Every structure is written in C-alpha cells, then in structure tokens.
Amino acid sequence: MRRMTPFSDWSAQLPPTSPLLAECITVSGSLTNYLMASGHDFAVSVLQQGSDAIHADETALFELTPDSQLHARHVCLTLAGKPVVVARSVCLPECPVWRPILERGSRSLGLTLFGDLPQLRRGELSFAELHAGHPLFALAQAHDPHARSRYLARRCRFELDGQRLLVCEIFLPELEQLL
User: Fold this and answer.
1) CB count, 10 Å around CB of 91?
2) Of 28, 30, 25, which Cα lies nearest the Cα of 42?
3) What angle do CA 76, 142, 139 make, to 5 degrees?
4) Greater confidence, 107 or 72?
5) Which architecture, in CATH terms, is 2-178?
6) What digits encode the pLDDT tens for the residues 132-142?
7) pLDDT per residue as tens digits for the range 32-44
C-alpha cells in the first residue's frame, strides 16, 4: 500500500486528548480490528446511504463545486451496544470502483480497505476537532447521549484504480470507557 500526502485543510497533528484515545485515533491499521480487539461485541449500523451534498472540506479532494453531490455511506460503530464512532465514506456518484465496495450493508469497510488490495493507495491520516459549524457535528451529537461541544475526528483518502474514496471517522466520548 503506497502513501499519499495529507490534506491541507485538516492537520497532521492530533488535537489534545488522553493517551488511551490518542492511541486509538492514530492507529495506522484498521480501526475495525483495533475496536474488535477490545473484547466487546462490535457492530456496524448503516445510518444512511445514497446521494448526499458534498461538504465544503471535501470539494478540493474531488475537484467539485460546493453544490455537487457525492455517494455517501454514514455508519455508526458500536462496542457492547454503545455508539463509539460515526463515520462518513464518500465517492463520486457513479464511481465504478467504490460504489460496489460501499454497498456492503452492515459489513465493516475497514475489513476491505485493510484486506488484500495491494494496489490500494492510502493517504496520511488527518485530524480535526469538529464543532457545531461542521456538517458531521450533528451526526456525532445525535449518537452521543451527553451532546458534547466538540468531537475528535480523523480522515483519510484512499485511491484504487485512479478513483478516490474519503473516509471520515468521528470518535464519541463513550469509546474511551470501552477501550
């Protein structure tokens, strides 16, 4: 798997957090495998899949205008039945490479991304604190019973056969108690 350069609008530096959460957020391999290793029951729930508006911080990656649409898959990852991560994976609407991969029901995308795809190129992880102004903030807050004012997130782009996929994962506070 070859590396690509990081995003310019997110930081290569993780915002301040606990060492336990930092280890999880910065894991270079599969987040799915990391969460499954916690020993708690792991599950993926699809929250929404289909056409969705592009976010402002996605336009440059896909070379699209702010009024464009992407194919999006929003999921919630749970440990012991509790939401710990919400994620958004996006590709171009008619992408012949990523659309079939995203159409996977409740199977984890990470198992494919970190499986046997030697031609897959993975970008560097980028990190951010999401606040009320970011479109994914509401997605995180909807799955957080304590409705925090900020959420840590990471994102990474993948490229396969010249087609791009962007995966953004938002970490919910409940995660730390289950690691």
Assistant:
1) 24
2) 30
3) 65
4) 72
5) 3-Layer(aba) Sandwich (3.40)
6) 989 999 999 99
7) 999 999 999 999 9
